[in-house]
Amino acid sequence: MRKRLMVLLVVAAMGMAVMAVPAAAGPVDTPIPVKVTKAPIAADGTTAGAVSDFVLSFVDLDPGVDGIGIMTGGKIEVLLPDAFVNTGGGVNAGIILQGWQASPRLGSWTTTVSGNTITLDLTSDYLPINEANPGPKQVHLLLNGFENPRPGRYEVGLTITPDGDVPGHTLSGTGIVKIIPRARPSVNLVSVLSGNPGPPPFKNVQHQTVDQGTDPDKVGLYLWDKDSTPFVGVDVVMSNADHYRFVQGGKTVGHVWIDAPAGAGNYTLSTPVGPSTPGFTAVTVLPTAHLITQFSPDPGTIGEYTLTFKMNNGNTQTQFVEVVLAS
Question: Which of 28, 264, 274, 290 has the fewest C-beta atoms lying within 10 Å of its C-beta?
Answer without folding.
Answer: 274
